[in-house]
From TrEMBL:
It holds the Pfam family DUF5687. The lineage of its organism: Bacteria, Pseudomonadati, Bacteroidota, Sphingobacteriia, Sphingobacteriales. This is DUF5687 family protein. The chain crosses the membrane at residues 23-48, 60-82, 103-132, 138-158, 170-190, 202-226, 282-298, 310-332, 353-373, 379-401, 422-444, 450-469. Keywords: Membrane, Transmembrane, Transmembrane helix. It comes from Mucilaginibacter dorajii.
């Protein structure tokens, strides 16, 4: 029966109308993955020398045991962003005399066929064989390999479980990513905890207690069982729908947005779209990663204040730039429905403004810890926040009327160039350059405060005149709506 499943999936692939395109993409991705594997293998063989150089006063085995758990933490974060959910068209098999548990076991076990599960062995196995094996013996080597395999499988099923839960409730993904980022920040940014010490507390003890390697295996088995039970409970679509209607509170019931009436409902639906789809969710997660962007520039005195303006604009407005350039493309699959619906398009635009303002406000609040580098940094962030919600939002919506490429929301953003063309790159330049046209001359004349004040004034003026710009955008949209719709119909 397993061979039949594999045969059916192969037939579905070869009979697809996009087979040629899929093969080309897989060949390119295969070459890229092979190149990355070769690089990882080189790093694996040289890992001992890297650790000796980084930790010259310690035996190389100590820092190795200290980084393994840190690797798996970042591995989980990457899986949440990049790993695809394994799929099987289960519905055609449900009426056949096939045991449901067998279907689910196949779907769950096949989920281990991911390139993410090979990386830790490519990175760590050469070091284990070269360094640990000669001094510690076969039992310790097997314990390290078993522990790494256990954590790999645990991460695999934990990421899949969180992503499946996110398909029902988008907040699950957002909270999970936020917790992981918070844990990383508590170590590398605030030094509240030491992930290295926690990692060594486990892997260091494998040198004297190899039986501890069974602990990650138990965790992996438990996570496998949790995935199996979850899939079994959601095998039938009507079960999932019934549970959603009874136990899951719709994200449209957001008290803050409810006060805005129909505009709030549209903004809440947009938030639901962002959280429930891979491509749009990637834009939000990328924005959260950019919250650490300032750590590249602020600790060094070599970067001038112009970099702070640039960083402040990106950290408070990256979602506006990244998500907004495909503004109507996110609704490409049902854009024809929007054309014939009774939705007031000015409300539709107002909902976009509300979404941008709300998320940009959250991002500005998240940058507040940069007060550590001085209150002027926070002031610059606030100035660029005003610029983003007052000017960049309008510019993005204006450019959206000139983007006719559809997007597939089910695909992630990594290595996905669908909907991206030269137009998007060109249209992004004014978003980045315009504030420096105002700020630059005053900065060169040693009057940077005047430049910042003008940026803030222009941003506030953009917010206060937003109703006027909504009318302009609405009129511009009506001249191009059929051209946009025609572009979205081309798959």
């Amino acid at each position: 029966m397993v061979l039949s499943f594999i045969s059916h999936e192969l037939k579905a692939f070869w009979r697809s109308k996009n087979t040629g395109k899929s093969i080309a993409i897989r060949v390119v991705m295969g070459i890229l993955i092979l190149y990355l594997f070769l690089n990882a293998l080189v790093v694996g063989f040289l890992l001992g020398k890297f650790l000796e150089h980084a930790f010259p006063n310690e035996e190389v085995i100590i820092p190795f045991c200290g980084i393994v758990l840190i690797y798996f933490l970042f591995d989980l974060l990457m899986r949440l962003q990049l790993q695809d959910l394994p799929t099987l068209r289960v519905l055609p098999y449900l009426h056949l005399p096939i045991k449901r548990n067998f279907l689910l076991r196949y779907l769950t076990i096949s989920a281990t066929l991911s390139v993410f599960n090979l990386w830790p062995f490519v990175l760590f196995l050469p070091f284990i064989i070269k360094v640990i094996a000669p001094d510690s013996g076969v039992a310790v080597v097997l314990s390290f390999i078993t522990a790494i395999a256990g954590f790999t499988v645990f991460n695999n099923y934990l990421a899949l479980y969180l992503k499946r839960r996110s398909n029902i409730n988008g907040w699950v993904f957002l909270i999970s990513a936020a917790v992981l980022i918070l844990i990383i920040a508590c170590d590398f940014l605030w030094h509240v905890i030491s992930l290295r010490n926690i990692s060594y507390a486990f892997f260091g003890r494998l040198l004297v207690m190899p039986a501890l390697a069974l602990l990650p295996v138990v965790l992996a088995a438990g996570m496998y069982y949790l995935n199996f039970i979850y899939l079994k409970q959601n095998l039938y679509l009507e079960d999932l729908t019934a549970r959603k209607s009874s136990s899951y509170k719709s994200t449209t019931d957001i008290p803050f947005l409810a006060r805005f009436g129909s505009v709030g409902d549209l903004a809440a639906n947009e938030i639901k779209l962002v959280l429930r789809n891979k491509r749009s969710r990637s834009a939000l997660v990328m924005g959260l990663f950019f919250m650490f962007y300032g750590l590249i520039f602020y600790p060094s005195s070599h970067f001038g204040e112009g970099y702070k303006v640039f960083v402040g604009m990106f950290m408070t407005g990256i979602f506006i730039i990244n998500y907004g350039q495909f503004m109507f493309g996110w609704q490409a699959t049902h854009f024809d429905g929007l054309l014939v619906s009774n939705i007031n398009f000015s409300d539709f635009i107002k909902a976009k403004y509300l979404l941008f303002t709300a998320i940009s406000t959250v991002f500005f609040i998240l940058t507040m810890p940069y007060v550590y580098f001085g209150w002027r940094v926070v002031m610059i962030h606030f100035v660029m926040y005003l610029w983003n919600i007052g000017v960049n939002t309008t510019m993005v919506l204006y450019f959206a009327n000139r983007n006719f490429k559809r997007l597939d929301l089910s695909k992630g953003a990594a290595f996905n160039w669908q909907g991206i063309g030269a137009t998007q790159w060109i249209l992004s330049l004014p978003l980045i350059i315009t504030p420096f046209i105002i700020y630059g001359p005053f900065a060169l004349l040693k009057h940077a405060d005047v430049g910042l004040a003008l940026i803030a004034i222009v941003g506030i003026a953009g917010v206060l005149t937003r109703n006027y710009w909504i009318k302009v955008l609405e009129a511009d949209y009506y001249t191009k709506r059929y051209q946009i719709a025609e572009g979205f119909r081309n798959k």
